[in-house]
């Protein structure tokens, strides 16, 4: 499961679509509709939010907004809590740098034409606010 902390505008088509699917899975886990992935580390930051389903709803909404801007159609009726004001969740500068490197490695393989346009520093997804710090504790770095 990869729920990107970087802004969706930086994602290639594959990452945006996969992110949508995986965020829908995260929503199902948080809502108690599935037994799988209950202990996935990427869910820690959503569980720590005052309103976990609202936070994942805000996350999904931003992905759907990006999809709209590209002419894709994500089914917004699948978002349990559309328009929830989840506030802003923190994400560290180290996490954003890690995800930039991770995305660059993926682009190098599947969309090398997009790699030259990838900025050196990527801003956060609209749900998150950037704070100083290392890679997040929930990230599984290999």
How is this structure best described in words?
The chain has one domain. It has 142 residues and is mainly alpha-helical. It has 4 helices and 2 strands; from the N terminus they run H-H-H-E-H-E. The two termini are 15 Å apart. Strands 1-2 form a two-stranded parallel sheet.
Summarize this structure briefly.
The chain has 142 residues and is mainly α. The protein contains four helices and two strands, in the order αααβαβ. It has a two-stranded parallel ribbon with strand order 1-2.
Structural class: mainly alpha
Radius of gyration: 14 Å
The tally of domains stands at 1
Which range does the strand content fall in?
5-15%
Instruction: Give me the count of strands.
Output: 2
The description of the largest β-sheet is: 2 strands, parallel
Helix-strand sequence: HHHEHE
- The separation of the N and C termini measures 15 Å
Principal-axes geometry comes out as: globular
Strand order of the largest sheet: 1-2
């Amino acid at each position: 499961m990869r729920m990107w902390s970087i802004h969706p505008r930086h994602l290639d088509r594959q990452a945006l679509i996969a992110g949508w699917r995986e965020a829908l899975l995260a929503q199902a886990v948080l809502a108690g509709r599935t037994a799988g992935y209950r202990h996935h580390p990427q869910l820690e930051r959503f569980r720590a939010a005052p309103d976990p389903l609202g936070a994942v709803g805000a996350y999904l909404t931003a992905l759907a907004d990006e999809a709209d801007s590209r002419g894709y159609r994500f089914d917004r009726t699948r978002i349990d809590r559309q328009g929830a004001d989840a506030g802003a969740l923190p994400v560290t500068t180290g996490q954003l740098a890690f995800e930039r490197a991770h995305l660059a490695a993926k682009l190098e393989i599947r969309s090398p034409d997009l790699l030259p346009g990838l900025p050196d520093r990527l801003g956060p997804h609209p749900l998150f606010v950037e704070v100083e710090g290392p890679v997040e504790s929930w990230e599984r770095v290999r």
